[in-house]
Amino acid sequence: MSSKAAPRRSTIRHRKGNHHGSTRELTVRVNALRNFDYPEAILFDCDGVLCETERDGHRVTFNMTFKENGLDHDWDVDLYGELLKIGGGKERMTHYFNTVKETREPFKSQWPEDTEERRAWIKSMHLRKTDLFLEVVESGELPLRPGVRRLVKEALDAGAKVAVCSTSNEKAVKGIVKTMLPEFAARIPVFAGDVVAKKKPAPDVYELAAKTLGVNPARCVVIEDTRIGLLAGKAAGMRVCVTKSIYSEDEDFTGADAVFDCIGDDGDERFGFEDLTTPGSFWQGDD
Ligand SMILES: [Mg+2]
């Protein structure tokens, strides 16, 4: 779907003979059907869906930390994509410094020989990086992805609930919602961090959101950018629309109800709230 579909209206057509024997057509708009057609809630993932958090936030603040520590390293967008295969920020730094240790600082000359010292040093770098990340979030320098604001507004205007469901750092997720969507933040509950014991791909965070919001999971639409997130949404019995992010675009999205490159700003929409009906052509697998 390359452009926004026209809003759908349910109509019932009656053909009825009149006393002249001709047929006239009555068109009755059935607004009540809308209550069954539209989602009760749109549940957004945070990282990669609201913002390109990895590229514009984490990558940037790793680089800031290196600079502050006098280290001549700058992770560009492609290199960072490779490094993302290493889960965990501390593990990622350790892995990277190990791969360049023959020629580059800090390992070349300053690297603490002692394992405990190494661990402490990496930990302190990571703590600083986490602080810088929150500073970047709160400064509003982490832009929303195209169409996020529009879809949030359309959903709230239509009376649907909106929430953000993420298993990453609660402070960061709340910071993103508060800073980047200030006009809606009071109406967007955040389910994040350790609010559930099992992280995605477990359905727990989505199940908790549906229960707390008092909505039927089958009437929720999840917006995700990764296979792990897609699996979490489907396991919760929800419809899942994928908007691919820069580092997830090659993942396998088999099983998604719809796949797009983004939501899309005004004039460049891939879909809108009006498209999220069930059943409807939107959900029949085209993108
Ligand atoms: Mg994500």
From TrEMBL:
GO molecular function annotations of the record: hydrolase activity; metal ion binding
Biased composition annotated in UniProt, kind: Basic residues: 1-21
Keyword Glycoprotein: no
Region of interest (Disordered), ranges: 1-24
Presence of the UniProt keyword rRNA-binding in the record: no
Entry superkingdom: Eukaryota
Annotated keywords: Hydrolase, Metal-binding
Signal sequence segment: none
Pfam families, A to Z: Hydrolase
InterPro entries in the cross-refs: CbbY-like (IPR044999), HAD-like_sf (IPR036412), HAD-SF_hydro_IA (IPR006439), HAD_sf (IPR023214), PGP-like_dom2 (IPR023198)
SUPFAM superfamilies cross-referenced by the UniProt entry: HAD-like (SSF56784)
NCBIfam families: HAD-SF-IA-v3
Name of protein: Haloacid-halidohydrolase
Organism the protein comes from: Micromonas commoda (strain RCC299 / NOUM17 / CCMP2709) (Picoplanktonic green alga)
